[in-house]
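Teaching assistant here, posting this on the class forum so everyone can see the example we discussed in section. The complex has two components, and the goal was to see what a joint structure prediction looks like when all of them are supplied at once.
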Amino acid sequence: MAVSECIIFDGKSYSTKIDNETARLSGKFYSIRGRKPRLAIIDPSQTSENSMYGRSKIKKGEKLSIDCYYIRVPQPVNGKSPLEYIERMLIETEPDGIIIERPLPKWMSERDASQIVPEYLDVEGINLRNMGKNMTGEKTIIPATADACLQIIESLDGKYGKDVCIVNRTRVVGRPLAMALINRDYTVTVCHSSTTDLKEKTSSADIVVTATGKPEYFTSEYISPGAAVIDVGITKTDRGVVGDVNFRDVYNKAGFITPVPGGVGPVTTSMIMKNFMTIAMKRLEDRLNY
Amino acid sequence: MAVSECIIFDGKSYSTKIDNETARLSGKFYSIRGRKPRLAIIDPSQTSENSMYGRSKIKKGEKLSIDCYYIRVPQPVNGKSPLEYIERMLIETEPDGIIIERPLPKWMSERDASQIVPEYLDVEGINLRNMGKNMTGEKTIIPATADACLQIIESLDGKYGKDVCIVNRTRVVGRPLAMALINRDYTVTVCHSSTTDLKEKTSSADIVVTATGKPEYFTSEYISPGAAVIDVGITKTDRGVVGDVNFRDVYNKAGFITPVPGGVGPVTTSMIMKNFMTIAMKRLEDRLNY
């Protein structure tokens, strides 16, 4: 591909489009059910970071006519697990979808988290059966960050090619994104901290997705001319919030780039709400088909 | 890596080692349970191919002191699904593990198959929860063909490098193998029929896994000097049974190659029985921990 002007992805305007669709679904839900859809946000660790993310979800929920229940989970006392408390709160609030805020505390394993959330209330695609569905190519919800990357990549419509290199192998980004892309005819390489020649891998891909948390690590050497670069990383530094990609350097070489902040981030937040409304509507429609 | 003599993998001797371990587990099962372990082999389509594979499993079962129940499923009559028949047969035989023979008939979807087999009797790793476990990196059973490739690759102990290119994206080979390898620090590229430049991908990998069913398609041009080549393909041709790899051509360039027949095939058959004994023993041990 010839090198031409690099397009900077506008995450805010893209996420507004998603929000509009979510608001439409939320209105439809209200008109059928006679009440707003309810999203339970479980916060098992209550770090200041969690509270911040939580507040931003509640604020977004208000805009989209979604009732958010923020459930602060007490820490274990005398070894008594608060899992029961969570269960009770879920019975009380009767949510249409559940999110568990990360990072998880020590007493809650990823396994615990995936078991708390039933398949049909699983906004984040962490239930084992939903993971399995993505693995088999069945239609399902995938984790919001992976989904945000998927939406952005799909919006490129193959213009930059279909060879994707993902630098991340977690269960919330790299793995589900890889499976979802393979389902859509992309050729996918998954790299990670143990990859021997990372530069060789990223620089031969049409599309590079980075989620390493290494601030401004990926310079133009890592990117092929005219490639699309999706930057999931977000790190607070002395010089402000930056991504995994050295933006100024890569901008001059890439064909498409998502900035940090204002790129993948806002799309992810919007995808969470959109995915919530998708499962809430599905369940509602399943009920109407009696 | 310097080009030296190519090692031809001996699938038969490798599978004998696996069988010995399976026989040991089967003997242990008998000594605890007072009966042989029971494997239900469900044949929903009864093609001559299925019967052949079925017979070879029963024969192997006899050698390993495993009772195989071959369940021939009647075809649907007047739209009445035979799923109930299968359920009844499973209740009658009380198996310690279940296999569903492929190809599946039209009336049974992959989804049906994955739902017939409960998580704890799932010899082939097709239950959605088991798929999900592999996706999250949790210990679980994966499909036998993928597992055979995994065992062979792990036996190479990184000697040929850890960059793997898999040419297959099915739920029984490419996808589960990719996830299992990522769990073990391999860098993985998944290619398929829609991959644009397949040769570029395979020829830059340390290890190539082919499962395309295209007889002798992969010539030495597709392989990097000294690479390891795992050939899952098996096609009957006028000149006999051949794999996806042009053996004679690739042999002169690769560092390691699995022949067809006598490579991945026998290891797969042995892995099915080994995986069956693994889950049968796990369940038995769970029961003993009362």
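For the discussion questions: The two ends of chain A are 54 Å apart (CA to CA). Residues 148 and 268 of chain A are 5 Å apart (CA to CA). Think about how each of these relates to the inputs above.
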